[in-house]
Design a protein that fits this description.
This protein is α/β, with parallel strands linked by helices and about 325 residues long. It folds into 3 domains: about 100 residues, Alpha-Beta Plaits (2-Layer Sandwich), CATH 3.30.70; about 100 residues, Oxidized Rhodanese, domain 1 (3-Layer(aba) Sandwich); about 60 residues, no CATH class. Helices cover about 30% and strands about 20% of the residues. It contains 11 helices and 14 strands. The strands form 4 sheets. The chain has a 5-stranded mixed beta sheet, with helices on one face. Strand 13 and strand 14 form a beta hairpin. It is globular. The mean pLDDT is about 90.
């Protein structure tokens, strides 16, 4: 059996439709020292493919980071599988707020140097020495304290469509940039402020809280399970929701609607808008915010140049794209 994906996204989408099964989207992570990440990768691929798991999973010497979907009927078997793996026993599974059968269309499990690239080269840094986790009730109480600094550890394109009010928002495109940027912004508050960090599912705050404690901050906390777990907790307990807008997610859905608030604006006309799309010029493919009116006006493109390219015959567009990579491109704040 090949330990790699053999179907295209279109083929998999058709297969999902024909199967007619409800699928669940979920995520989890675990920082743990793995001696042989490649062996774990191959084991997970063989076992999870048999359970019809699709998703994007990274395995490294420091642990595992998984975002995936699977048939709802296989959820119990998958959970039992995780419980049978020593270092994954008792792990929290963050189930998506909004579900889609096509959140993932391939199974990709990759071995990486780290499950979360951080740029930290200090051998004395210990990612397991983290700040305390805050449940939703504790979080809601503590953010009301004027001596608390709330920090969003996500990237700017995530936080611009949704965030907690009063949070220090990033201008960075990567976690490694956000660590340094946030450290510079908070250096004057190292001793006299409590710092609470949050992210989507907890993996970035886990490492960020350890980093800031390593930097000499004394009161560093993290939102348990990130935004996803927070939303499940407030719904279950009837607590007030303090998150405004949409929660950005890294799958086909791109975002989950959390509140009716639209906190972002179209990158082209500045009207209220929180819908991310990719530029219609595949050679550009930049992720940006575009309202319905601008989508029609610009043919789902980010500029006149891209609009003109996207109007060319498919073969000509493909020739222009040859040899060029258009992955991981986001609309920068400096482009506004």
């Amino acid at each position: 059996m090949p330990l790699y994906n053999t179907l295209s996204a279109a083929q998999r989408a058709k297969w999902i439709d024909e199967a007619g099964k409800e699928r669940l989207t979920l995520s989890f992570y675990k920082y743990h020292c793995l001696d042989n990440p490649q062996a774990w990768r191959d084991r997970f691929y063989a076992d999870w493919e048999a359970m019809d798991v699709l998703g994007r999973i990274y395995v490294a010497q420091e642990g595992i980071n998984a975002q995936l979907s699977l048939p709802a009927e296989n959820m119990a078997a998958f959970h039992a599988y995780l419980e049978a793996v020593d270092f994954l026993r008792g792990i929290r599974l963050n189930v998506a707020i909004e579900q889609s059968n096509k959140s993932f269309l391939k199974l990709k499990i990759k071995v990486r140097p780290k499950i979360l690239a951080d740029g930290i080269e200090d051998d004395s840094f210990d990612a397991t020495k983290t700040g305390p986790h805050l449940a939703a009730a504790e979080f809601n109480d503590l953010v009301e304290n004027p001596d608390t600094l709330l920090v969003d550890m996500r990237n700017h394109f995530e936080s611009e469509i949704g965030h907690f009010p009063g949070a220090v928002l990033p201008e960075s495109e990567t976690f490694r940039q956000a660590l340094r940027e946030t450290a510079d912004k908070l250096v004057d508050y190292k001793k006299d402020k409590s710092v609470i960090m949050y992210c989507t599912g907890g993996i970035r705050c886990e490492k960020a809280s350890a980093f800031f404690l390593h930097q000499g901050y004394s009161k560093v906390y993290q939102l348990e399970g990130g935004i996803i777990h927070y939303l499940h907790q407030i719904e279950k307990s009837g607590l007030p929701n303090k998150f405004l807008g949409k929660n950005f997610v890294f799958d086909q859905r791109l975002a989950e609607k959390v509140s009716e608030d639209v906190v972002a604006t179209c990158h082209q006309c500045n009207q209220p808008c929180d819908t991310h799309i990719n530029c219609g010029n595949k050679a550009c493919n930049i992720l940006f915010l575009q309202c319905r009116e601008c989508r029609e006006k610009w043919s789902q493109c980010c500029s006149e140049r891209c609009k003109s390219i996207a109007s060319l015959p498919h073969a000509q567009q493909k020739a222009l794209r040859k040899g060029n990579s258009a992955s991981a491109k986001y609309f920068k704040k400096t482009e506004r």
